[in-house]
Write a structure and sequence with these properties.
alpha/beta; Metallo-beta-lactamase, Chain A; seven-stranded mixed β-sheet; five-stranded mixed β-sheet; 7 helices; about 30% helix; globular; MBL fold metallo-hydrolase; NDM-1-like; RibonucZ/Hydroxyglut_hydro; Metallo-B-lactamas
């Protein structure tokens, strides 16, 4: 019996491309399916959530997950990473230090607990964080087989100093934005944000996807280029960035 995206509560965005909105923090996890490979984008906020994403992705792809992209180093997007074993992991240059430095891991753990994640769950996930095996400084093309290629682009800094976007060519083109774009609330700017560069990062996203792309925010419903432009302009006003 074939499993559909809807069967598992995922949203089909394009052929072989989908996402789910994980509970509690409404964080997006994405999936791109190739002929003999599968890319997960952001595995959630805990090892248990990462394991669930892995198993659902395997069921949807029909084979195991082979690649993982981390859009930025916040707990709700990376704490599930250790649950995906034997995969090639990608992140923006510099994210490796954030995921392995003791003080940064402690801050992620503390942030998770402040936001309601159980202390033991947060501690286990933080301790098992590891540096990605592949660091993207500009752009990196992944071949997932069957003519499916995916472009990983280091588009930050913005929401953090290490923001990675994922472009899936097709009709429509799909851009996974991480938390550079949020639909379900005002974009969050923490201590690690780079506000002066955030509008420019959104310009780079728009350059990747163009006018007709579907943009997948880190939190919230799918949006279009007009929404991304409006959020870029609002961020420029909010942070006093000249355009």
């Amino acid at each position: 019996m074939t499993v559909t995206w809807e069967d598992l509560g995922w949203e089909r965005v394009a052929a072989g491309v989908g996402r789910c909105r994980l509970p509690v923090w409404d964080c997006t996890a994405g999936l791109v399916v190739g002929e003999d490979a599968a890319l997960v984008i952001d595995p959630g906020s805990s090892l248990a959530e990462g394991a669930k994403v892995r198993e659902q992705a395997r069921a949807l792809a029909g084979h195991r997950v082979t690649h993982l992209a981390l859009t930025h180093p916040h707990f709700d997007h990376v704490f599930g990473a250790a649950a995906l074993t034997d995969v090639e992991v990608f992140g923006a240059v510099g994210v490796d230090a954030v995921l392995t430095r003791v003080r940064d891991r402690e801050e992620m753990r503390a942030d998770a607990v402040r936001n309601g994640l159980a202390a033991e769950t947060a501690e286990e996930a933080a301790q098992r964080l590891a540096a990605p095996g592949h660091l993207v400084s500009g752009e990196w093309t992944l071949d997932l087989g069957g003519g499916r290629q995916v472009l990983l682009a280091n588009v930050g800094p913005g929401h953090t100093a290490h923001d990675l976007a994922v472009l899936v060519p097709g009709d429509p083109e799909v851009v996974f934005c991480g938390d550079l774009v949020e639909e379900s609330g005002e974009p969050q700017a923490g201590r690690d944000a780079v506000p002066s560069q955030w509008p420019a990062a959104l310009d780079r996203l728009l350059g990747l996807g163009g006018e007709d792309a579907v943009y997948v925010p880190g939190h919230g419903a799918l949006v279009d280029a007009a929404f991304v432009r409006a959020q870029r302009d609002a961020l420029a006003v909010r942070f006093g960035v000249s355009r």
